[in-house]
Amino acid sequence: MTRAFSFSVKAQDGAARTGVIATQRGDIRTPAFMPVGTQATVKAMFVEDVAAAGADIILGNTYHLMLRPGAERIAKLGGLHSFMHWDKPILTDSGGYQVMSLAKLRKISEEGVAFQSHLDGARVVLRPNRAIEVQCLLGADIQMALDECTPFPASRAEARVSLDLSMRWAERSKAAFEAMSAPGQALFGIVQGSVYPDLREDSAKTLEGIGFPGYAVGGLAVGEGHEAMLQTLEATTPFLPEDKPRYLMGVGTPLDILEAVAQGIDMFDCVMPTRSGRHGQAFTWGGRLNLRNAQYAEDLSPLDPESACPAAQYSRAYLHHLVKAGEILGAMLVSYANVQFYQELMARARTAIAGGTFADFVEDVRRRYAGPENTA
Amino acid sequence: MTRAFSFSVKAQDGAARTGVIATQRGDIRTPAFMPVGTQATVKAMFVEDVAAAGADIILGNTYHLMLRPGAERIAKLGGLHSFMHWDKPILTDSGGYQVMSLAKLRKISEEGVAFQSHLDGARVVLRPNRAIEVQCLLGADIQMALDECTPFPASRAEARVSLDLSMRWAERSKAAFEAMSAPGQALFGIVQGSVYPDLREDSAKTLEGIGFPGYAVGGLAVGEGHEAMLQTLEATTPFLPEDKPRYLMGVGTPLDILEAVAQGIDMFDCVMPTRSGRHGQAFTWGGRLNLRNAQYAEDLSPLDPESACPAAQYSRAYLHHLVKAGEILGAMLVSYANVQFYQELMARARTAIAGGTFADFVEDVRRRYAGPENTA
Q1: Does the pTM of the predicted model rise above 0.95?
Q2: B9 contact partners, CB below 8 Å, separation of at least 6
Q3: Which residues fall within 8 angstroms of residue A29, CB to CB, at 6 or more apart?
Q4: Are residues B41 and A83, on separate chains, in Cβ contact within 8 Å?
Q5: Are residues A285 and A255 part of one domain?
Q6: What is the pLDDT of residues B56-85, one digit of tens each?
Q7: Both A62 and A192 in a single domain?
Q8: Which residues neighbour A211 within 8 Å (Cβ) at sequence distance 6 or greater?
Q9: Residue B318 lies in domain
Q10: d(CA B276, nearest CA chain A) in Å
Q11: Same domain, B169 and B192
């Protein structure tokens, strides 16, 4: 029997909460960080190591996968889980964000968004029902309604128009999902409204009216800055149902994440651990390290003595050498260590919330990340 | 107590033999294939997987390591084994071959070879005693005498001059090794002589006169072609002591290797499994596969159903996708599968020699590698 999608909060500490999202492919402990598996791979990592790092769920990108190898092809090959040998939950985005950031000749209309593939120039139209169809073909456990990620900055009027379109698309996405999805799958709505508190409130209430098993906050981490992001989040989360998971899309640094957890966010995704890993930037319990720096050339201390990750046991000197020499193993080891650091961060956050010490934990991490290498 | 370097032949089948090289860091089962770890990493592979694939020994490149991160630095950091977390034997080349293929403004004299680093243009002189010093600083278990890899083609007169220089360097290398090496380490001499049988014989005898615990055949696989390589080998191996390991440098394809084993060669190294792996070329028990080919886009069969390698269990369709998308995971998986294929090839060769069926085994592999994708 298919296990129904559900969410339960186990403990709260202020607005921060820890709980479990139950899915047909396993439990997701929240607050959760989802490593990004853009093209059916978490970049430079064996999928076994993504699980060993502690990830309960990964994210796949609809835009990339629909263009290559194609959603119909992945379905024919048995779905995304089987294709990439990952049997835990997968969340897919709707494709809307990456159409806007990667595709050429984009044109948004009521119908959807038309664009040219960045790979071969092919003309593609992504409509709300196609976005859901693609996610169903991939076999995503958690799917996202198609939205327009309102560009930043946007005037109030522009944000209103964009938001209203996203809300109509959310409704169409839900109808498509109800027609096409498999038992146990879930569709999340996405709150927009740029940095305008009343628009965010309006969006949250509209989505709750439509009714989703989870709600995402979109349109942040798009250049508005840390303070504006937190303020917008403050104006949004109080209007999201308490008994449903809340997902802040595309965020972020360790402190961004903890500050959002403090406001009641449950789920995160970001390319930061893997992208930084490919460029020799390490996240550790001692703060951020740029392994290219000459200071590490003869540093025999392990990358992160506090981490349990096998990759973090290599010396900084060795990793410095690999990064300087452009060796793939450097990307492999630092990506693995970073993904595991993010998972350990979430695990410690969950423990702190359960123990009622979350504020102290945030201050502890703030001190660890106060060094000179910690500017993003 | 340090274990002495030794070699024992366990079984012979024609000229092919199987045995064990015992070193202070463990046994090397022969015939052995050594994956190449140029810059203190077997490219795109975790070192644990190199061991899991079955490798008893890896090769490190003196030229690369002396330039970056530097031999003195590696020594200061505890030696190459500890630096890269590989505790089994390491063989290092002398650097001579790569000076000729990579460095700029090379100038060979009686003293040694002067060149400009390909990294930063620094002026470096590699003399026989410095080549040994570098290998001792790295902590290599098996070291190679500095030689000039005679370019191909070379006239008989050129080959003679080059060979004589290499023989004088071999003598100086041995003297340096005796002065500098640690207990348990071994130095091999390298036979040169281009494609001239009498020069090869002369070189082999000269080296035996100097006396080494192992002998390499150098100056092959440099453009002379498969037949000339085999003929030169036939003119060389009979003059190499039977009770010492014989190492054919830089070879080669699966069939090159088996044909050399048939002539009595015990050790091999080649970048082919890893370099091919990074370019989507797979070696399997069904022959060579170019994973970029569109024919694999929907091929759900595992890369190599006959291989025990975890990486070879992924579908060809998935690997095709990763390779086409330029994903690092594609390089990781195909490199792992290739390195393990080469190890499985050597394991089957050892079993066949012990069982007296080596000729049949070579014919079996020849049939497997007769397909259209098997041209190098």
Answers
A1: yes
A2: B17, B18, B19, B242, B243
A3: A18, A20, A56, A346, A347, A350
A4: no
A5: no
A6: 999 999 999 999 999 999 999 999 999 999
A7: yes
A8: A174
A9: 277-361
A10: 15
A11: yes
Cα three-residue angle A209-A215-A220, rounded to 5 degrees: 120
Query: Taking a C-beta distance cutoff of 8 angstroms, is the pair A218, A146 a contact?
Result: no
CA dist A251 and B303 (Å) reads 37
Length of chain A: 376
Residue in chain A nearest B48 by alpha carbon: A310
- pLDDT, one tens digit per residue, over B127-145 is 999 999 999 999 999 999 9
Question: Does any domain span residue B33?
Answer: yes
Strand A215-217 relative to strand B16-23, pairing: unpaired
Q: Read off the pLDDT of residues B313-332 as tens digits, 9 standing for 90 and up.
A: 999 999 999 999 999 999 99
Instruction: Give the chain A residue whose CA is nearest to the CA of B278.
Output: A328
> Cβ–Cβ contacts within 10 Å for residue B200, how many?
28
The dihedral of CA B155, B160, B162, B163: what is its sign?
Answer: positive
Give yes or no for A41 touching B (CB within 8 A). yes
Kindly state the tokens that stand for B345. Answer: 């090839």
Partners of residue A329 in chain B, C-beta under 8 Å: 41, 43-46
Q: Which residue of A77, A83, A317 is in closest CB contact with B77? A: A317
What integer pLDDT is reported at residue A83 of this predicted model? Answer: 98
Average pLDDT estimate for B34-56:
98
Mean pLDDT (chain A) is 96
Say which residues have a Cβ less than 8 Å from residue A244's Cβ, sequence separation at least 6. A7, A212, A213, A214, A215
